[in-house]
Amino acid sequence: MALLVVLGGGESGVGTAILGLKKGYEVFVSDKGKIKEKYKNVLEHFGIDWEEEQHSEDRILKADLVMKSPGIPDKVPLVKQLVEKGVPVISEIEFASKYTDAKIIGITGSNGKTTTTMLTNHILASAELKVGMAGNIGDSYAKMVAENDFEYYVLEISSFQLDGIVDFKPSIAVITNITPDHLDRYEYEFENYIASKFRIAENQDENDYLIYDADDTVLVEWLKNHPVKSKLMPFSLNKVFEEGAFIEQNEIIIKTTTDTISMIKDTLALEGQHNVKNTMAAATIAKLVGIRKETIRACVSNFQGAPHRLEKVLKIHHVEYINDSKATNVNAAYYALDSMKSPTVWIVGGVDKGNEYMELMPLVREKVKAIICLGEDNEKIKHVFGNAVDLLVETFAMEEAVKVAYKIAERGDTVLLSPACASFDLFKNYEDRGDQFKNCVKNL
């Protein structure tokens, strides 16, 4: 019996363990940290062998196949040893894809991928297709493959997950955009990160589709120098295509070889130019899958949006509080500030991933009346924006940040949490950061 070793006992790890067991592997789960109680219970239920707070190297190095959770970098010594021994080290999406005949829709990008994934899933589910949504969002893809018989999978896929693929091949792939992010994992080389994102299309052939933002110069340049085999379906706010999605007057037009659909831009549920693009991508997928125009139009006008992404929390004394905790990089914060319509008190900061804040300067000068830093190290933010706003305050806890914002904000202002940074200095993850923000606002 072949030995499958799963490194990491989180959602993707436990899901992979269940699928591996079902497919006849001997399975061993090893986590260097603590495994959450709920996952331990699942492993015990299935009789899967596991360990926590250590890696038993002698046992792990005997593996026939290793599934590595996306959070573990390739440069970890144990992973290097496995690779040197010739043991395949793959990601959950690679492993699970081998065991399903479903049509796979893979969505990646620096920003917008969660919203695009959720909207796509919303349209397909509304059309009563048998669809599962997984990957970097919600439930484990491998666990879904083990327990369901879906016809479609809509997968949100991170660059870390794409680093661990060999044969993974979505029939429809989307790259929403590429901006510098996670550079600490890519030797601080932007090229490496771009190449990683484009792996989503590397196994595609001429029967497959790649949907991409034709306004994104990084994407356009890369495609020019590294052509793909799949059929290209661009979307744009200012270009027009024979096939693709574009704007004419106040309408979104989506053209495929067989059909055209138009939608009035003002009917979209999601606000902001970036969400016009996310909607274009999701609607193009729906069109390629063959969903009726009426269904697509209805879905883009009634979609609720992703939590922690420009999520309206409350209005208190005519001040709007917005939770954009999912903005873990500068580009995401750019979208958020760009969509602000009133003077903004901006809560920003966290773990800096090599951020370049200067591109936010025009928006900060135009829209931001005060900055509240929320992080253990705020030096870079203070250095860049110290002279750009009248007031900059340092805080080290969410409750403090929200109370300061409440004091500063005046009638008609907006308080925006859009950190532009990772959350791991003060919070478990961006969800924890967003939930704390919402709770603190509700307790004002």
Automatic annotation (TrEMBL):
Leader sequence range is none
Catalytic activity of the protein: UDP-N-acetyl-alpha-D-muramoyl-L-alanine + D-glutamate + ATP = UDP-N-acetyl-alpha-D-muramoyl-L-alanyl-D-glutamate + ADP + phosphate + H(+)
Q: In which pathway does it act?
A: Cell wall biogenesis; peptidoglycan biosynthesis
Q: Where does ATP bind?
A: 109-115
The alphabetized UniProt keywords are: ATP-binding, Cell cycle, Cell division, Cell shape, Cell wall biogenesis/degradation, Cytoplasm, Ligase, Nucleotide-binding, Peptidoglycan synthesis
Q: Where is the Mur ligase C-terminal domain?
A: 308-421
**Which GO biological process entries does UniProt record here?**
cell division; cell wall organization; peptidoglycan biosynthetic process; regulation of cell shape
Chief location of this protein within or outside the cell: cytoplasm
Q: What is its EC number?
A: 6.3.2.9
Quote the subcellular location field of this record. Answer: Cytoplasm
Q: What class of enzyme is it?
A: ligase
Query: Function, please?
Result: Cell wall formation. Catalyzes the addition of glutamate to the nucleotide precursor UDP-N-acetylmuramoyl-L-alanine (UMA).
Q: Which HAMAP family match?
A: MurD
Which protein are we looking at? UDP-N-acetylmuramoylalanine--D-glutamate ligase
| Name of the coding gene | murD
